[in-house]
Specification:
731 residues; alpha/beta; 28 helices; 21 strands; globular
Length: 731
């Protein structure tokens, strides 16, 4: 038999095995979908029990549905001759043995598929990687481990993946995870894991695969609370959004820092970097506290109050006493308002009783005194004008009102000790820097107790109405059957089996939203794990918000300090993390660039050496054979040159982008491309991007490292010195 015949015979065997795996998957999917449909129709048990069952089955259906794409992508043979097949999920033999016929890539037994090498085979003889189109195997590549025979296919599979044209979003790397990446994905650490790496090192996709791994190893705990993934902008989240679903994981919430307050989706940034710095610093906490305290006033002149036929005055002394009592209560502003009101009304009613009855009332008769004071108190609380005065001294506040009125008033800014540059005409024209301040104010203000009590009363009334309706249903059921069954003493009626309250709970409206939808809408939701991408850009106030969202401080932090563009961002990981997770954070780095070809990285590395000389650029795993180029154009020639680039790339497979300053038609600013990748990139006016100081250098570095195949530069003025390694071309 020739080598080709032997290969074809083995391929046929592998096709048969994979076909059987798909048959097993289809059977399991049909069974779970049937159970899910039955659970939807079930009326037994409580609403909560039915909800848990339906949600669990729905999650399993989603996991099984995504496995159609690349269900089995490899095989691992050990030195004893045993073979293990590796795939997106685990499948097992029927019966009691539960022997795996397909190993989940996250299982401990599958780890050698990613980490075994010829030098360190880990008891393995061969790694086989499958190539497929849909459900059909088209071929395989073998890599010998611990010996010299066979074909080395590991690098071939990796290079095929990184050289493939980019599509609409990030793809999972489950079939081509490298050993360096696998070690980070499987890190067993309960605190914060920092993954730092330069452009193209795969830090984002490694972090997402780590989430999938944690969901596999801690599924019950993780699924109860879910995972939050925070990215720099909506385009980035759209780019990475399908990675976890492709791995069968859906209990994940994707947000930017502008989305952290439910109901808001803020994308605007501060026009002045200095404003972002002051809003992002922890000094903003003192400003917010002062801004709230400034709304807790005492009357400038005594306020006359008619009470029980006499006039008493709410003066500064009484109001100051009440204000101090309210502040000393430690309650948030809106909740402390009740303390303020109680002290004021007590003091005024005491004064009114004393003034009205001073000629005849014996203060030692406390019972009579208290009855009179109670009457006075009721009169006070029914006095709309007085209550309006009280509301003006200690108003019910919302975060939006406090911040908008602070920004709109130079006087309020001075009173709060805020940066005068915070002043703006439209106070509620929110920026991303405002979101953590709004979130902080939620806790500083608290909920209005009156609104809370009203909501509780409404909920209680709804429960009573449901129970009354159920009682009516039971009564009708009993009347309909009673006449027919009067002589049958052993027959049970509906009332004998269930009471009205129990029947009502069976038909309670079930929240049909999945975990991600419920978590995203609930500001009080706490997550089991949080992933923060482009973490070097987050301000101290943004970190404070995220740490509140995860009390266990279980984080995967992804970033590159060399790419920091925000003046409010992290200067070091230690300064950010040590205050929240002292001694509970680990640092890991990625050093291999899988995205950026060596030709392009050489240019970007020269720029990095200029603005961050102590940072070593990642080493590119490949070259593309295409030199990046630069061309000088005039302002009049620029639109035509950009159009020519776009037209040329439209005829090629893959994606392209034009990156440049905001006033260049059709260009995307560098900040909007962070974390993204394109087959071809045209950078326009790099000299203008670079002119924006340290932030400009970081932005140009980002722009230069987005390309996976081709990079071009159009410059209007002299080419910046670090870019002179580009090949000069003419039209």
């Amino acid at each position: 038999m020739t080598a080709r015949q032997g290969y074809d015979a083995e391929l046929d065997e592998e096709r048969g095995y994979v076909k059987a795996l798909y048959a097993r998957l289809d059977a399991r999917r049909a069974r779970v979908k049937g159970e899910h449909d039955a659970a939807l129709k079930e009326h037994g048990g409580t609403a909560v029990e039915r909800d848990v069952a339906v949600r669990g089955l729905a999650r399993e259906v989603r996991r099984l549905d995504v496995a159609d794409s690349g269900l089995c992508f490899g095989r691992l043979d050990d030195v004893e001759g045993a073979a293990s097949y590796i795939g997106r999920l685990g499948l097992f033999e029927d019966g009691d043995g539960h022997e795996p016929v397909l190993l989940d890539w996250r299982a401990p037994a599958a780890r050698a598929f990613y980490t075994a090498t010829a030098a360190s085979p880990e008891g393995m003889r061969r790694r086989r990687q499958f190539h497929a189109r849909g459900r059909e195997l088209t071929g395989f590549t073998d890599e010998a481990l611990g010996g010299t025979e066979g074909v080395s296919g590991g690098d071939a599979a990796l290079l095929a993946a990184v050289n493939a044209p980019r599509g609409a979003g990030m793809r999972d790397i489950v079939a081509t995870i490298q050993a360096e990446q696998d070690r980070i994905i499987r890190v067993d650490h309960p605190g914060v894991l920092v993954i730092e790496g330069g452009p193209g090192t795969g830090k984002t996709v490694v972090a997402l695969h780590r989430v999938a791994y944690l969901l596999y190893t801690q599924r019950e705990r993780m699924e109860r609370q879910g995972v939050l993934v925070v990215g720099p902008n909506p385009a980035f989240l759209a780019h990475i959004g399908r990675v976890l679903p492709s791995l069968g994981e859906s209990d994940v919430v994707f947000m930017t820092t502008g989305d952290l307050v439910p109901g808001l989706a803020v994308t605007a940034e501060e026009a002045e970097p200095g404003v972002a710095v002051t809003k992002g610093s922890l000094g903003a906490l003192e400003v917010l506290a002062a801004a709230v305290a400034d709304r807790q006033r005492v009357p400038e002149v005594p306020l006359p109050v008619e009470l029980g036929g006499v006039t008493v005055r709410l003066d500064a002394a009484v109001a100051e006493w009440a204000r101090q009592e309210a502040r000393d209560s430690g309650r948030p502003h809106n909740e402390a308002r009740e303390v303020f009101r109680e002290v004021v009304t007590w003091a005024l009613s005491e004064r009114a009783v004393g003034k009205a009855g001073h000629a005849w009332l014996d203060r030692s008769d406390r019972a009579l005194w208290e009855r009179l004071r109670a009457d006075m108190l009721k009169e006070l609380l029914d006095d709309d004008a007085f209550m309006a005065e009280l509301d003006a001294l200690w108003p019910v506040l919302t975060p939006e009102r406090v911040l908008a009125e602070l920004y709109g008033s130079a006087e309020r800014l001075r009173a709060a000790g805020a940066d005068p540059a915070w002043l703006r005409a439209a106070g509620d024209a929110w920026t991303v820097s405002d979101v953590p301040l709004l979130d902080e104010l939620v806790d500083l203000l608290g909920q209005d107790p009156a609104q809370k009590r009203a909501a509780e009363r409404a909920a209680a009334q709804a429960r009573r109405e449901e129970a009354e309706y159920a009682a009516g249903v039971l009564e009708i059921m009993g009347v309909d059957r009673r006449d027919d069954l009067m002589d049958d003493e052993d027959h049970l009626l509906a009332q004998d089996l269930v009471h009205a309250e129990g029947l009502a709970t069976r038909f309670e409206e079930v929240d049909t939203r999945d975990l991600a939808e419920r978590a995203a809408a609930d500001r009080e939701w706490t997550y089991r794990h949080v992933v923060v991408d482009e973490a070097q850009e987050l301000s101290a106030m943004e970190w404070r918000v995220l740490m509140r969202r995860c009390p266990l401080k279980s984080f995967t932090v992804v970033g590159d300090l060399a790419q920091r563009r925000s003046a409010a961002g992290a200067a070091s990981w230690e300064s950010v993390l040590e205050p929240y997770a002292p001694g509970r954070w680990l640092y890991r780095s990625l050093t291999v660039n899988y995205r950026t070809p060596a030709e392009i990285m050489a240019v970007a590395g020269a720029l990095l050496g200029e603005f961050a000389p102590g940072v070593r650029p990642p080493e590119s795993v490949r070259a593309c054979g295409v030199r990046p180029w630069a061309r000088q154009v005039t302002a009049a020639e620029l639109p035509g040159a950009v159009e020519a680039f776009v037209r040329a790339e439209a005829g090629r497979e893959g994606t392209c982008v034009v990156i440049g300053p905001p006033d260049v038609p059709g260009a995307v600013p560098p900040s909007r491309t962070k974390g993204l990748e394109y087959d071809a990139v045209l950078v326009v006016a790099p000299e203008r991007i670079l002119a924006d100081g340290p932030r400009g250098a970081a932005e140009l570095y980002v722009a230069l490292t987005r390309a996976t195949q081709r990079l071009g530069v159009l410059h209007l003025d002299a080419l910046p010195a670090p870019l002179r390694g580009l090949e000069a071309v003419t039209a």
